[in-house]
Amino acid sequence: MKRILASNIISTKVFALIVVATILFCGCNGEAGLTRQINQIADPYHFSIFDWQIHALTRQYDQYIFNSRAEDPENSELVKEYFSNRQQVVALEQKLLMLQQGLEDGDVSSVEEQILNLSERNQHILSEVEGTLSAQVETILAECGIINPWQDVHNAAVVFPPVNFVIQPPPHLLVISPRDEISRYKDIALVQIMNDDQKQAVEEEIEKIGMSGLVVRLGGIATYPSFVADTLPLDYSIEVAVEEWFHQYLFFRPLGFRYGMHIAGIIRDYEIATVNEALAGMVSQEIASMVYEKYYQETATTSANYAMAPANEFDFYAEMRTTRLVVDEMLEKGQVEEAEQYMEERRLYLASNGYYIRKLNQAYFAFYGTYASSPGSVSPIGSGLKALREQNPSLKDFVEQVSSMTDAEDIIAAAD
Question: How many domains does the chain have?
Fold first, then answer.
């Protein structure tokens, strides 16, 4: 059955995904007064997830109707052309800057024309690239037996949720934490384009009401369709697409549903957020590597170019873990201002060793600490999940076991 027919069959479930995604990113936790203040600060930059999803899906259905969004998993050459063009544009933009500053000799108009031609070509083929990658991911998911969240009950042959994403700048995310503890109090989606001055202004306003704030640039968001950032190399783009899809998949499993309730503010379970992010990260890496190996093994593009700094003897992960542990200890003692001063000193120290972080505060650790493999995390959940993966003979068995749990302690105990 063609994928377009499958999409029509499950259109009502897709609408349910829109509602799910809106819940996940528009939760309204916290006291009404403080929440109102936070919303007023964010309002000039607020990004409506729901409105964007309706617009994006309407556009995609138009593409389906007029057959402009081909979804052929064998169309890898077009995908490679798109990412190659993007690399060329980056190089040409750097060359253009050198020409404009008089640091190189050459024809400015010729370079501008090359950039324009490559950009227009990429815009023309973008929907096909998105469709091809979606179809490739679904092919691998089917091969792994990860078809839908209820496959034990409904023996459906269609991947649900359908893999559906757009390659474009995601919204920014305003992460808010209390100053006296590290926890994700509230997240708000902000507009896709913001400069550092605007980010700083929002963060300073959050500080004025006694909270810690950080505006984060994301690689992707599990809206429906998902966002995948347009600055990522091919291999990492695939990984982000799978990870955001898997968050949608998890919502229909006990583990993910509890996470959704946490995001919406109905329950508070910081550890369940860590479990979801860590599990999605592990699964996405495994699936994405299979997609890449099957369709793009010979492609030279690599995410190694996106490392934070050149390899050296400085252990960034160890330094960040130490920082987090010291900050936790200070906050437990009520030393809030001392902890903030310490984080700024550590930020400068990291920068002197080649690792630039724009702002290091409680909100930073609240956000990055959710990812168990992140240097900002001190959670044992990551190692527990790795142990469970080693105990399971297949990725499908691992996903079914972990996604049926609703308590982080169950995962750690099962791994012992």
Answer: 2
CA–CA separation, 307 and 81 (whole Å): 23
> Look-up: residue for tokens 């964007």?
52
Domain boundary among 301, 328, 363: 301
Picking from 155, 106, 160, the residue whose alpha carbon sits closest to that of residue 138 is 160
Interatomic CA distance for residues 376 and 330, integer angstroms: 16
Do the beta carbons of residue 99 and residue 111 sit within 8 Å?
Answer: yes
Domain limits for position 357? 316-415
Cβ–Cβ under 8 Å, residues 160 and 142: no
pLDDT single digits (tens) 156-196: 567 888 999 999 999 999 999 999 999 888 899 999 999 99
Task: Write down the pTM of the prediction.
Answer: 0.85
Q: How far apart are the first and last CA of the chain?
A: 44
CB 190 within 8 A of CB 174: yes
- Assess contact for 148 and 154: CB atoms under 8 A: yes
pLDDT in tens, 112-124: 999 999 999 999 9
Tokens describing residue 217:
């640039």
Residue where one domain finishes, among candidates 272, 301, 330:
301
β-sheet bridge partners, residue 212: 177
Whether 345 is covered by a domain: the verdict is yes
Paired tokens of 171: 């919204």
